[in-house]
Amino acid sequence: MLTNSELKKNARQTLRGNWQRAIKLTIVPVILGLISWGYLYGNFKWPSNSFFVDKPSLSFTIVSVALSIGVMYTLLDWVRDKDVINQSLPAHVFGLSINTMLALLVQALFMSFVILIGSLLIVPGVIFWLMFSQSVYIYKDQHEADPNMNVWSGVINSVSLSESMMIGHKWELFKLKLSFLGWFLLSIVTLGVGFIWLAPYYQLTVTGYYVALAAENREQFA
Questions:
Q1: Contact in structure between 181 and 15 (CB atoms under 8 Å)
Q2: Burial class (CB in 10 A: 0-12, 13-18, 19+), 211
Q3: How many other β-carbons are positioned within 10 Å of the β-carbon of residue 18?
Q4: How buried is 147 (Cβ within 10 angstroms: 0-12 exposed, 13-18 middle, 19+ buried)?
Q5: Which is nearest to 66 in space by CA: 34, 108, 35, 24?
Q6: Does the pLDDT of residue 53 top 60, yes or no?
Q7: 194 CA to centre of own chain
């Protein structure tokens, strides 16, 4: 398995000469996430009677998550094929099928329920979070291998595979994510501006982690 330094180095090499495209790819979910955070904790007001503006935090969060999934999948393709970033980005980001989005929604609800139970105690909550962290990536690979895969069985398979793959790797992934803590704090201090550069760097690093982990678990995927 690659070390944290090697994963970060690979991410920086991927970004070299492609920062502008990477930022364009990740900036919309970042902005929507910051707006959602602002409504939750900043008591921002937006005068309107429509449901989507009366519930702005929820609205921005839903759209941000949907776009983030598309970004995650584009970055996964990019890590595996460097020419992807030169192709039409909107086609990748918005190219998720209804089946895929439905499956990811079911998966998100399932994982949220499990994590919510675990969150009653902080440590079990973090363990659940790490345990199922690879399931969204796994679902993409499973769905591409079998486009007619049943939604529910795809969700169960991806969650189960993530749990299995993360055995012995949870602390390893936790340290990788923790290594970005300083950058996250710096991005917060800059009122969110730092996230413009941090988002592609962080996401490419954790995507590279999944690619390396999947390579070690080819037999399970087969």
A1: no
A2: middle
A3: 17
A4: exposed
A5: 108
A6: no
A7: 18
